[in-house]
Design a protein that fits this description.
mainly alpha, 65% helix, transmembrane, membrane
């Protein structure tokens, strides 16, 4: 039995009560219908559901790769994000990300506190054909999966309650500011002209650098120190998770066109093509080194391709996505190999795959972004003889990396002071499924 802790329940109860109090229960006065397109709205509702599906997909993807004593705990770390971040987003997260700008860094937390003015608000300026509430919930699904991605680096040794606290602080102080800086018209990266179609910077680079911070802060697992090898618990889980991620990623990238438009179709096509190229590149690169083609390798490669095309999906041609997927996969494969030879214990290679993949995607966007694909592109990429976009992307790469890593490391320290982040050696040995949740897999 753990010591009773009433604080989280009291906080949830307080928000529940706020939700029905006058002044906080924002009853719509008149729903805005002018300019709303039913086809765009229908597509964005579907895209929103597709992006949510990615988080259970991630749970299976990660859950299949860990030791069989940690499958349930690892999967729950993704599922709990759907609960925690959904409430946090309604209370204050959406306002921090998309409220009126404070210095181009973060939104005003009071603009949409408790979702004030969202149901009856005017559509978002860059998504004028869908209701604001649809845009808000589409963006929520990005906020849900980002901290869930981080868990792969800390798997098999992180205290569950501490992870939940870290996830809340990360969402408030890393994710929301990055979303604001990148996607709000007054955000500093947006005003620089940085292009991030669907979250290569906001989601994958932030999660990758937070994962590196987590792996460094939590230090090595006992099994890693002893160089003990435990096979993945369930490769079919990884295959299932990859399928769900790939399927959901169409909502992630094509949905970021915020309408049922030719741009959405283009982003859909580049997404599939990059994933296919990257999955093949990973296993072929392994084969070139004398390794056997593996299911795990194809799955990891495909996800790297999905990561890398994310910032570029709506800015590059379909043939270019073959190049992006192939290059990103080979680079991530090599970085993962280097990581495996080091003392860094990033359990599921989150930094080599999401961090490095996101950075490759940001660089590729700076090289290949084209006005012909997306008329919103002001400065074209390096491949078209212009240097401004590429230079700004390099500045953003350095700035975002420093911000995401430093803030995540600080949040880890603060979390550890409140709730110890690392489980005891005994709990780690028995597995987190039992020690954290009193649940376990029954093996056939």
């Amino acid at each position: 039995m753990q010591k009773p802790n009433y604080v989280p329940l009291i906080l949830l109860g307080a928000f529940a009560i706020l939700g029905v109090l006058p002044g906080f229960n924002s009853v719509p006065t008149q729903i805005v219908t002018e300019g709303i397109n039913s086809g765009d709205t229908a597509w964005m509702l579907v895209a929103t559901a597709l992006v949510l599906l990615m988080t259970p997909g991630l749970a299976y993807f990660y859950g299949g790769m860990v030791n069989n004593k940690n499958v349930i705990s690892t999967m729950l770390q993704s599922f709990i994000a759907m609960g925690v971040i959904s409430i946090l987003w309604v209370v204050v997260g959406f306002s921090l990300a998309f409220g009126s700008s404070i210095g181009g860094i973060v939104g005003n937390p009071m603009d949409h506190f408790m979702f004030k003015g969202v149901l009856d608000g005017k559509p978002w300026s860059l998504a004028a054909s869908i209701p604001l509430v649809v845009f808000a919930f589409f963006q929520l699904k990005f906020a849900v999966i980002t901290p869930a991605l981080v868990t792969g680096s800390m798997a098999e040794r992180v205290n569950f309650r501490s992870y939940v606290l870290f996830m809340i602080l990360f969402s408030l102080f890393v994710y929301a500011p990055l979303a604001h800086m990148t996607w709000h018209p007054e955000g500093i990266l947006f005003k620089m002209g940085v292009l991030d179609f669907a979250g290569g910077t906001v989601v994958h680079m932030s999660a990758g650098w937070a994962a590196l911070a987590g792996a460094l802060y939590l230090k090595r697992r006992k099994s890693h120190l002893e160089a003990s090898y435990f096979p993945p618990a369930n490769i079919p889980f990884v295959l299932l998770g990859t399928g769900l991620l790939w399927f959901g990623w169409f909502g992630f990238n094509a949905g970021s066109a915020v309408g049922a438009t030719p741009l959405a179709a283009s982003a859909f096509a580049t997404t599939n093509t990059a994933a296919a190229a990257a999955g093949l590149a990973w296993v072929l690169f392994d084969a070139a080194k004398g390794k056997k083609v593996s299911a795990l390798g194809f799955c990891i490669g495909a996800v790297v391709g999905l990561v890398a095309i994310t910032p570029a999906a709506g800015f590059v041609t379909v043939p270019t996505s073959i190049f992006i997927g192939t290059v990103a996969s080979i680079i991530s494969n090599y970085v993962a190999h280097l990581r495996s030879k080091s003392t860094l214990d990033d359990t599921l290679d989150v930094f080599p795959c999401h961090g490095v993949g996101g950075m490759v995607g940001l660089v590729m966007t700076g090289i290949f972004a084209s006005k012909g694909v997306n008329s919103a592109v002001v400065d074209e990429g390096l491949a078209f003889g212009q240097t401004t976009l590429f230079t700004n992307h390099m500045i953003a790469l350095v700035g975002v990396s420093i911000f995401a890593f430093a803030m995540s490391y600080l949040i880890l320290k603060i979390t550890d002071l409140i709730l110890p982040l690392r489980v005891s050696e005994e709990d780690e040995k028995s597995g987190l499924d039992v020690s954290q949740h009193d649940e376990f897999l029954i093996e056939a």
